[in-house]
Amino acid sequence: MSQLRPQERDLQALLDHVDPQKEIQNATAAQLDRMLRNEPALDALVPFTDSWFEDTGETRGLIQGSRSVRTVEKRIWAFLEGRQDIWARRFLQTAIILKSAKKERMSKALAAAAFALMHKHPLQGIPLMEDIVMTTLDAGGAPL
């Protein structure tokens, strides 16, 4: 037991694990968009997404240092641009757990969001990222 170590996997290896048939990776832009906007899956993910937000000294500074809701929201979006890999990893790790629990629809929505992040899809086109922005603003005390 003392020799057990977690496997280190890059984002592509995690994606391949959750999408072995490459259904997400070979999807057309329209198919990927439908996966990203799958309302029943997104609704089922609310227990997870309600606790996903950024709370760092930097985000607190962005929220407290902004005079308007529009400005602070814009700054949080820009902050998240540099954190795409972190969120892609979180989405993929959660997708793998959900897939093992036979929650395919939720797993696929998360894997699709991770794939979009990995391929620099505009963040505003990923509903899960919008949820993270709104939760971050709310947790930071931004006036919504």
What can you tell me about this protein's structure?
With 144 residues, the chain is mostly helical. The protein has 9 helices and no strands. The protein has helices spanning 11-18, 29-36, 39-44, 46-49, 57-64, 69-81, 84-100, 104-118, 127-139. Helix 1 (11-18) runs parallel beside helix 7 (84-100) and helix 7 packs antiparallel against helix 8. The radius of gyration is 16 Å and the shape is globular.
- The chain-level mean pLDDT equals 93
| Structural class by secondary-structure content | mainly alpha
- Could you give the distance between the termini? 50 Å
Number of helices: 9
> How much of the residues is beta strand, in percent?
under 5%
Overall geometric form? globular
Give, in order, the helices and strands.
HHHHHHHHH
Q: Which stretches are poorly predicted, pLDDT < 50 over at least 5 residues?
A: none
Alpha-carbon Rg, integer: 16 Å
Total count of strands: 0
Residues in helices, as a percent range: 55-70%
Give the biggest sheet: none
Short recap of the structure:
The protein is 64% helix and 0% strand.
Descriptive labels:
9 helices; single chain; 144 residues; mainly alpha
List the SSEs and their pairings.
Blueprint: H1 11-18, H2 29-36, H3 39-44, H4 46-49, H5 57-64, H6 69-81, H7 84-100, H8 104-118, H9 127-139
Helix pairs in contact: 1-7, 5-6, 6-9, 7-8
